[in-house]
Each structure stands twice: as structure tokens, then as C-alpha cells.
Amino acid sequence: MLRLLRERPRAGLLEIARQLGVARGTLQARLDRLTGSGVVTGYGPDVNVAALGHAVEAFTTFEVDQPAREAIAARLRAVPQILEAHIVTGPGDIWCRIAGTSNQHVQQVIDQVLEVPGVRRSTTVIALSAVIPYRVQPLVDELAGLAKKPDARH
Predict the structure, then answer these.
(1) Beta strand pairing status for 119-126 and 56-64?
(2) Using CA atoms in the order 109, 113, 125, 82, what is the torsion angle rounded to 10 degrees?
(3) Is residue 139 part of a domain?
(4) What distances in angstroms separate CA 46 from CA 4, 32, 64, 111, 129, one per listed residue?
(5) pLDDT tens-digit readout, 10-31
(6) pLDDT tens digits for 104-147?
(7) Residues spanned by the domain of 107
(8) In this structure, how many other beta carbons lie within 10 angstroms of the beta carbon of residue 137?
(9) Which of 5, 8, 39, 152 is the one with CA 20 to 30 A from 70?
(10) Which one-letter DSSP state was computed for residue 66?
């Protein structure tokens, strides 16, 4: 069901139910259960930020004063170019994925964050290309027992 919803996001539930050989109500109940439990988190279209003019992608870690983490996170949420942010272990404290129109634009976003009280320093790498873009379907397939097993002879 999840694979079909991802592959054909504009198909109606009736069409997907037909393809799966289940009643539309059954499919709706399963989908409602997955949504209610937090497995399914959204239905929006995937958006290519490069096609929107933000072709530079950077990964930045910010070292922060630990007591200020929540206030810093709130300020990060207000920066539209920050696509995601995570508190992490290791040398950085908060990891961010940033989209910019140019290297200079990414630098401006980083400088904006460095002005936030409690942010001490940053380390940034620029992505050259994505060899595996964000995905979840292979994991879903594996958990459902649908994943292909790797050939042990290679």
C-alpha cells in the first residue's frame, strides 16, 4: 500500500484499493491507522529545491551552548533555507541541511545563525551531488519482507 501511494500519489484510494484487491474502506482504515500511529506523516508533493533556484546544498554543524538549544532550535525553524535540523552527538551539536541560491547565499544563512545567542561556531561542507537522495521506501520494503536479498556470490 505505501509503495503504491508513493509511486502514484495522485491516484485515488479507490484505484489503489482495486490494485491491491481490497475494499476502499479497508484501505482507508489501514491508512488512517498508519497516520494515527505516526508512520505516515504527510501527503504533500516532493519538491526539488534546486528547481526552485536553490541549487546549493550544504551540511552545517553548529556548536552551541547546551542550555540554549531550545531557543536556538526555535530560531532555526524561522529560517526557510534550513531544510532540516537535528541535535547530534560528536563534535557539532546541531546538524542542519541548508539550501541556497549560491555559496554566498549559504554563507549569509550561516552568518544569520551565528548571530543567534548561544551559537559559538559552525563547520560546513557543500554537497557536490546526491548519490542517494532522501528515501524511505527501501526500508519500508525490507520491513514488509519485500526487499530483494543481496546476492551473496558477489
Answers:
(1) antiparallel
(2) -60
(3) no
(4) 15, 21, 31, 28, 18
(5) 889 999 999 999 999 999 999 9
(6) 999 999 999 999 999 999 999 999 999 999 899 899 999 988 86
(7) 56-126
(8) 13
(9) 39
(10) G
This prediction's pTM: 0.82
Q: Residue 50 falls within a domain, yes or no?
A: no
Rounded Cα distance between 84 and 66, Å, is 19
Strand partners, 57: 99
Cα(17)–Cα(24) distance, rounded to whole angstroms? 5
Could you tell me the CATH number of the domain that includes residue 104?
3.30.70.920
52 neighbors 81 (Cβ within 8 angstroms):
no
User: What is the DSSP pairing of strand 119-126 with strand 94-100?
Assistant: unpaired
Three-state DSSP at 56 gives: strand
Task: Write out the three cell numbers for 128.
Answer: 557536490
Q: How many domains does the chain have?
A: 2
